[in-house]
Amino acid sequence: MKEFLSFTKKEFRHIFRDRRTILIVLVMPVVQIILFGFAISTEINNVRIDIVGDMTDPTVRKLVQRIDNNGYLEVKGIFTGTDVISERFRRNESDMAVCFEDDFDKKLDKKGSATVKLIGDGSDPNSAQIIANYVTGVISSGTGDGKKETTAGSPLPVKYMYNPSMLSSYNFVPGVMGLILTLICSMMTAISIVKEKEFGTMELLLVSPVKPIWIIISKAVPYFVLSTINLVTILLLSRFVMHVPINGSLLLLSAVSLTFILTSLGIGLLISVISSTQKTALLISGMGLTMPTMIFSGIIFPCESMPEILQWFSDIIPAKWYIIMVKKIMIEGAGFSFMIKEYTILLLMTLLLLGTSIRLFKKRL
Amino acid sequence: MNAIEIRNICKNYGDCKALSDITLDISEGEIFGLIGPDGAGKTTLFRILATLLLPDGGNASINGTDVIKDYEKIRCSIGYMPGQFSLYQDLSVEENLDFFATVFGTTIKENYDNIKEIYSQIEPFKDRRAGKLSGGMKQKLALCCALVHNPSILFLDEPTTGVDAVSRKDFWNMLYRIRESGVTIVVSTPYMDEASKCDRIALIQHGRIIETGTPEQIKESYPYTLLSVKGKPAYPMLRFLRRCPGIISCFSFGSEHHAAIDPKTTDERTLAGLLESNGFKNCRIKEIKPTVEDCFMQLAGKVTDNTLRIK
Amino acid sequence: MTGENGNIIEINGLTKRFGSFTAVDNISFHVRKGEIFGFLGANGAGKTTAMKILCGLSLPTSGEGTVNGFSINGEQEQIKRHIGYMSQKFSLYPDLKVWENIRLFGGIYGLGFKELRKKCVSIPESLGMEDYADKSVSSLPLGWKQKLAFSIAMIHNPEIVFLDEPTGGVDPETRRMFWEMICGAAENGTTVFVTTHYMDEAEYCDRVSIMVDGRIADIGSPEELKGRYGEPDMDSVFRKLATKAKRF
Prior knowledge:
Chain A has 365 residues and is an alpha/beta fold. Chain A contains 14 helices and four strands. The radius of gyration of chain B is 23 Å and the shape is globular.
């Protein structure tokens, strides 16, 4: 036990004496939250809409009114022809143009349908898609005067539960949590073990009577603590700066997070076993962990829109399951019974990873 | 009694034979030197004895305990100082020592007497980070860390490589004091002049032991008559000597040349005459006893013929 | 490109400070053209720092000097082009083949294509390792590597070559062969500036300087120094001077 304490003390010293690393580790979550929160916002807010159509047409006027009344949309200009639109996009004066065909009201009356064309700025396809969906919803939702109003090709009205304005922070907070925990636990543990191999100190530890399991555990403890600090930082930031609610049980969230930290430690150990230099460890954890976590965590794009084969691949990434559970707890306020499948998968992965890496950890050089 | 018994140890890395058929006995309480150049297999042998590597063949025992089967038992009773400085650079002197004491299940206090002599020299700097120490001090710290758990056998892998002549002398004095407390010391070095400081040595080259014995025994087994030849200019004289009849080999040793001769063909006087008549100045020739370095070169089995051709 | 007095290196009042630590403290010396100059000193005496300045890798805090006629205070690039350099730690790329290393370093020093092709054959030949020209450097024994590294450091026929502990850990015979190469180069007029921990090697030098605590404690031919301190060999001279060190 004394050996273990002294080991842990030593690990903490390594961490605290490397000012730059500790700074990065503690500041990284803050920066990521703020970055995703403000800079890479995918939410619908202050969308600038141009209208092309005949404003004397009563239905058109009504629809334009509705668009303008919507809190997230704002009508910026009204034109009679589509030729100006591309110029408006280029100057970044508008995000989307809504074009009503001529004699809109009459056609709707006679044929029962009339066409609205949406022109989006495809240079940012993600936002364009989201905006188009939203605008379509606004235009086609309900009709005020009992007129049968269906716009050709328009999908059913969409209403987003839990996240009515599609705040992207609801998406990225769980994602960032997964990312940070993976980074700190896996990458840092892996690097700190490989560093000992590279500097030759592992040679000395191995000739000592200390059991390898204790070396491993004492390496893990400090990063466990750091991750917990990060977890708290992220949760505080997202609750009070990003206004993401924690609808579910905080206890459940902590329990799930601790399990995931263990999973990440297992991955870190595995990396440290198979790599012999810090560079390799860094590359493996960077390319093999961070990238997939970024891609499959839903921070950038939703898993559902990926090709099937990639979706299967995403199943083997532990962070995915963790993020799903965090979303359920934080956003939906779901209880444990709604995530038994995910938790079981994560737990099995953890046991497998820890078991394999401890077994593979070499007792000799 | 033998502290270490090594029987037919072999180790290969791919096609490279790092060690072939090493057999050695090291007695209790002696300083045993493993002398050989870099790449001769010294580190590999050390790692096998320190239970860090498994041999491909043969076996070895330390204090009667097998290094393969009972490695955990051995790890408690040996001290090991790897070739590369392997302490934590970002921890202070005291923290390093404290850490290694605890790892071996002891405390600095408990074994302070054991390391007092060496530790007192670096104690004034105990709060300094190990990475900021000079070469000699790092070495002392590493030695303290290897000794702190009171091991009965100490393995020192090239402790004096890259260390200047003064610190090297200090270091050997420390080893003598450690030996007095009954510790068996196995030390490796590429410096031939350190061979004579050991009680017994083994010369190792290309993964094979080429000779074992006390430095005296090895020197006595040198088969040729050895002459020390001095004169000016030194380098042309060396080349001239190698062409003289009866010279088996000739190498420079500092300010003089050591020439192994065949007494039937030539002698001091003939050689002196040859040198004088070829315009070399201040020639002095006398018969000397060989050094371990002479023996090593002779045993390494090379002859002067394959010298470098520089154009 | 030497001064009128035949000195290829002239150093006056060279000082290098790192913060409050004076690594090299006001040293002055010269090296004559064509001599083997041994630059000795204990670990941490400031040898490496001084050598870096001479090779144009770092600037002095104060002091002046010329190497091969170029100022150490502003003509680093010319210095680098006219010197050869070899160290124990880094000399060749282990994962490249012998001839690839030759071609690489020859190219760095601006050798022509024809000359490079010639060197790729002549260097391995002169070292007696023709059969190994197509092997990667990592597969060579250390002694051979060092000999090859020396030949490559000399590839552009520099006026002066700097050798930083070239023989550390090398077997005794190869070590001597290496010194014979050095002597051969000196005979051909190349100045050799060398550091070493082997004191018997100090005897091979024409002149040596011994650094203690950032200063040059003494300088002279091995005979002069041995006479001055009444010691039989350079090892004892060195120990006598270096034990005065206060710096750790």
